[in-house]
């Protein structure tokens, strides 16, 4: 809902070092994402996840982060088009 997106935008983002000390070593995609699109997307994905023992929001974040790290560190962009 708009209210959830607004609350997420107002809450701000913790400093990167508080999330994980190595998180700041990786760069984000060069594409420009609007500030209101990213939280809305994250909330939609979170709402779509059920709550079985392992397949939940934290699992989705972990898998996404792992895929991102593989993409960046193995230079998979050289093999994907």
UniProtKB/TrEMBL annotation:
<keyword id="KW-0378">Hydrolase</keyword>
<dbReference type="InterPro" id="IPR036971">
    <property type="entry name" value="PDEase_catalytic_dom_sf"/>
</dbReference>
<dbReference type="GO" id="GO:0046872">
    <property type="term" value="F:metal ion binding"/>
</dbReference>
<dbReference type="GO" id="GO:0007165">
    <property type="term" value="P:signal transduction"/>
</dbReference>
<feature type="domain" description="PDEase">
    <location>
        <begin position="1"/>
        <end position="81"/>
    </location>
</feature>
<dbReference type="GO" id="GO:0004114">
    <property type="term" value="F:3',5'-cyclic-nucleotide phosphodiesterase activity"/>
</dbReference>
<keyword id="KW-0479">Metal-binding</keyword>
<dbReference type="InterPro" id="IPR002073">
    <property type="entry name" value="PDEase_catalytic_dom"/>
</dbReference>
<protein>
    <recommendedName>
        <fullName>PDEase domain-containing protein</fullName>
    </recommendedName>
</protein>
């Amino acid at each position: 809902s708009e209210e959830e997106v607004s609350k997420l935008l107002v809450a701000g983002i913790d400093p990167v070092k508080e999330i994980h000390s190595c998180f700041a070593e990786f760069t984000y995609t060069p594409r420009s994402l609007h500030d209101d699109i990213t939280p809305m997307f994250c909330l939609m994905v979170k709402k779509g996840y059920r709550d079985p023992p392992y397949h939940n929001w934290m699992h989705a974040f972990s898998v996404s982060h792992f895929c991102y790290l593989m993409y960046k560190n193995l230079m998979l962009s050289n093999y994907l088009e």
